[in-house]
Design a protein that fits this description.
416 residues; globular; mainly alpha
């Protein structure tokens, strides 16, 4: 019985445990830096268009390169890929910190850094998915993914909570230092994990590997088209991601501009989402026993739409206390649904995909899941130049409520 397997059982797996801890440290650094970077970017530009462009550019490596990256690393050690990517991001973040302390940073360079960071992430994500699967027996996938998501959210909660305090105390340089330190520790810990990886072939000639990569990528695309349920999950994930584009594009601008808030409030927003995400990821295996994935997706879509409408309405509330309550409370609820949605997509994907296709399929899955985000980000950024950002939140909210009510009527959704 699936529910007889608990979190204690997956924790006993040594390779999984150390991979989990390394991921927690990496997520802690990332979440601190996320607040610092967005605060720094909006502080340099004071432009909602530019922050939307940065968010859109961040997604391009995932969409353009990740299908190729997933096929390319199919028969390479995933541990080596993870260590190499984390080490490269450590060096890059160190360079950014140096330029920041020398007062030599500019928005164009930060845009380039964001692109490079996500270029490395395009290779790391499919490698990480495969490495996680190799640390778990198949009957523990759901519990392993759930615990991974829950602990990741916990570290995100801690990191985002600390970020506002760090910015107020020592400035953005403190967040950058935490991020580079996390990358270094994560790379060192992963390098020390001893694990027999599946589907790895060493000493393959470069020419043969490139040819093999193209064949595997083609096979991966055919596999995704053949596995309709996996494609449906990816498209649904893409729609959910699009619903978060206004928040991700305008988060700092919304807090600083629309609400006249500080970095502490920005941290509070992220903390609320993370805290809800912890609970959502932890509860998903139990909720799944009582609620079908189809009903869960409908609830997630409606709550996401409602959240955007609340964001549009909050600046019109006169009482500051009610603004805080409304923002943090609705963000907490959004976090719960996002936590459930992340585990739903990840565990369902891993359950439906054979292990030999996992790297290339996960890369294509990620590309599809992020496919519309850059376009929508560029569009909302352009719209923000001719109107306030609040109507953008409101329109997105209405669209998503209607969209997911319509999707609920599609019979294919029962297969998820």
């Amino acid at each position: 019985d699936r529910m007889k397997i608990g979190y204690r059982d997956v924790w006993k797996l040594k390779a999984y445990r150390w991979n989990l801890i390394a991921g927690m440290i990496g997520r802690l650094g990332d979440s601190i830096d996320m607040i610092g970077f967005s605060w720094m970017m909006y502080g340099l530009t004071k432009s909602t268009l530019y922050t939307a462009i940065v968010f859109g550019v961040n997604m391009l490596p995932t969409i353009i390169l990740q299908p190729f990256a997933g096929a390319m690393i199919e028969r390479i050690s995933k541990k080596k890929i993870i260590v190499l990517c984390d080490s490269a991001r450590f060096v890059l973040t160190t360079f950014v910190l140096f330029l920041y302390m020398c007062d030599m940073l500019n928005p164009v360079f930060l845009l380039f850094v964001a692109f490079l960071n996500n270029l490395f992430e395009a290779f790391r994500m499919p490698a990480g998915t495969c490495f996680l699967a190799d640390t778990l027996p198949q009957d523990m996938y759901e519990q392993g993914v759930s615990l991974n998501q829950s602990t990741s959210r916990t570290c995100e909660l801690i990191g985002t909570g600390l970020a506002g305090v760090i910015i107020a105390g020592v400035g953005v340089k403190g967040t950058l230092f935490c991020d580079l330190l996390a990358f270094l520790i994560c790379a060192l810990m992963i390098s020390r994990i001893h694990l027999t990886e599946s589907n790895v072939a060493d000493n393959v000639p470069i020419k043969q590997h490139i040819k093999s990569t193209m064949i595997q990528m083609k096979e991966g695309l055919h596999y995704m088209m053949r596995k309709r349920v996996v494609l449906i999950i990816a498209i649904t994930a893409s729609l959910l991601n699009v619903g978060l584009v206004p928040l991700n594009s305008f988060e700092a601008a919304y807090v600083q501009g629309a609400l006249n808030g500080s970095a502490i409030l920005l941290s509070g927003l992220s903390v609320s989402i993370s805290c809800g995400g912890i609970i959502g990821a932890f509860l998903y295996p139990y909720l799944h026993e009582k609620i079908s994935n189809k009903w869960m997706l409908l609830s997630i879509g409606v709550i996401l739409g409602g959240y955007n409408i609340i964001l549009a309405a909050l600046p019109y509330v006169e009482n500051r206390m009610w603004i805080w309550i409304g923002l943090l409370g609705s963000s907490f609820l959004l976090g719960i649904t996002a936590g459930c949605g992340n585990v739903l997509a990840s565990s369902s994907f891993m359950m439906h995909v054979e292990k030999e296709y996992l790297a290339r399929a996960s890369a294509i899955f990620s590309a599809v899941a992020c496919a519309f985000m850059p376009v929508v980000s560029f569009v909302v950024g352009a719209i923000s130049k001719i109107t306030d950002i609040l109507p953008i939140f409101f329109v997105f909210g209405i669209i998503f409520i209607l969209l997911f009510i319509y999707m609920f009527r599609i019979k294919k959704m029962d297969e998820i």
